[in-house]
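Chapter summary example.
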Amino acid sequence: MNNQQSKIRDITYISLFAALISVSSYISLPIPPVPVTAQTLAIMLAGSLLNYKQAAMSVIVFLLLGAFGVPVFSNGSSGISIILGPTGGYLFGFLAAAIVISLLRGKKNNIWQLGAANLIGGILVVYAFGIPWLAFTTGIGIQKALAVGAIKFLIGDIAKVVLATTIGYSLYKRLPR
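The structure predicted for these 177 residues follows.
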């Protein structure tokens, strides 16, 4: 594959996953202060299927779209106020998560390694960014932020890990590298 074809492939993957992450925000259950969306599933898939640069760029494109007013955040929201608001830490956690998952999954398409990568990146990394930011922006403290921004979402997030791992494992070997 020549350099031009490689660039086209990269742009295609980045665009496709930025769109997938954006569309997944509309699959949502509005549970204040942090809605449940399918975005974490899309983030896990980006990390599961793309190299770390492609995964990072897909999330950056998504974040920039939202920052500039395209309604790609949960429930069709957008703007800097969302990024700086209570859920902003989760949004930046998405970027770190996609990179971490991509780096941890390895190159051998091992389902257990991919599952561990999705668990660490898709849950722990996202929460590591989201919980402190939620606590800071709302003034509710870390314990309350953990309760309202993580604990009640764990079962759903674990289900997303299983789903992303299963889908990612199946699709990884089919994508041109």
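To summarize the output: The chain is about 70% helix and 0% strand.
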